[in-house]
Design goal:
single chain, 105 residues, alpha+beta, Inhibitor Of Apoptosis Protein (2mihbC-IAP-1), Chain A, 3-stranded antiparallel β-sheet, 4 helices, 8% strand, BIR_rpt, IAP
Length: 105
């Protein structure tokens, strides 16, 4: 599960009202266990289950498991992050229109 995109897929059943965004969880090395708010690091297998609004997934990972190879250096740990062609990448910059019609493209 060193691929961020594959980790993100495990969050398909992540509660919609969860206090931390699934994308941030996957980016921080976590996979969803399918139970409550329990996530597990794909590398150190450390688990965290008590999330609050405002929590930062990577910061919590670093505090709870400071010796985790993923926390120490995601690249050295073999992490494959989402790229510009990943499923969450924006396709373009947002457009702002001030007139009544959109410009021709």
């Amino acid at each position: 599960m060193n691929c961020e995109e594959k980790r993100l897929v495990t969050f398909n059943t992540w509660p919609a009202n969860a206090p931390v965004d699934a994308r941030r969880m996957a980016k921080a090395g976590f996979v969803y266990t399918g139970t409550g708010l329990v996530v597990e690091c794909f590398l150190c297998h450390g688990r965290i289950d008590d999330w609050d609004y405002g929590d930062q997934a990577m910061a919590r990972h670093r505090i709870m498991y400071p010796n985790c190879p993923f926390v120490l250096d995601p690249n050295q740990a073999g992490n494959i992050p989402l790229t510009g062609t990943g499923i969450l990448a924006p396709t373009s910059q947002p457009q702002i229109f001030t007139g009544t019609t959109a410009p021709n493209r």
